[in-house]
Amino acid sequence: MNKPRIITGFDRYRNTELDVKAKFIVDSMTGNPNFDMPLPPLADITAATTAYIEALSNAEGGGKSQIAIKDKARLQLEGLLNKLALYVEAYGKSDEVVLLSSGFSLAKTVTPVGVLPKPDGFTVQPKEKGTINLKLSAIRGANSYLFEYRVLGDEAWIISVQSKSSLSLTNLQSGSQYEFRVAGIGSATTRIYSDEVRSFVL
């Protein structure tokens, strides 16, 4: 499983959201036994937050100089928060609960699914002349599906990769018997196929 990690980079926050997030982090880390000596000190974060709030207020309806001061104050606050995030990750021991207690947001972890299971519910249904519909139950973790078919007795399989768990085959040889199989495609390279199913084409 991937280790939990803090989301760094605070430019995704709107101007009116950044100070709220900064205050939440300071409140969460104040007296937090998991982080007894924060770097930078929380007092520095609080001072930068106060300066940013003041600059943000002055920039509303202000001129270019006030906006420039606000932008500078924001960059300073973001820089301090990013440094604090590095401290939290260093002392968070890759413990999700401990990291969350800091007030920082965590990135979503992706757990590899591994080898996909054998397909279930694979059905082959002849339709009108030269047409057969293939269908199976969706496989959790499958990005797409590898359908294979061939005329009974042939060695080579004809391959069709589909994003959905169903496929309609057309222009098949009427009166011929085919065999079909399917496998899910995921992150692993190993493929586990369904049982082969045979059917005559109308």
**Count, helices:** 4
**Using DSSP, what is the number of strands?**
7
| Distance, first to last CA | 49 Å
The average pLDDT is 89
Q: How large, in whole angstroms, is the Cα Rg?
A: 29 Å
Strand order of the largest sheet: 4-3-6-7
What is the element string, with H for helices and E for strands?
HHHHEEEEEEE
Largest sheet: 4 strands, antiparallel
Helix content: 25-40%
General description of the model:
By secondary structure, the chain is α+β, with helices and mostly antiparallel strands. It folds into 2 domains: 15-100; 123-200, Immunoglobulin-like. 33% of the residues lie in helices and 19% in strands. It contains 4 helices and 7 strands; from the N terminus they run ααααβββββββ. A hairpin with a 6-residue loop joins strand 3 (144-151) and strand 4 (158-162). Helix 1 packs antiparallel against helix 2 (42-59) and helix 2 runs antiparallel to helix 3 (64-91).
Please render the helix and strand layout as text.
Elements: H1 15-29, H2 42-59, H3 64-91, H4 96-100, E1 123-126, E2 132-135, E3 144-151, E4 158-162, E5 166-169, E6 177-185, E7 197-200
Helix pairs in contact: 1-2, 2-3
Based on the model shown, name its key terms.
three-stranded antiparallel β-sheet; 4 helices; 202 residues; single chain; 7 strands; 2 domains; alpha+beta; Immunoglobulin-like
Summed up, what is this model?
By secondary structure, the chain is an alpha+beta fold. Helix content is 33%, strand content 19%. It folds into 2 domains: 15-100; 123-200, Immunoglobulin-like (Sandwich).
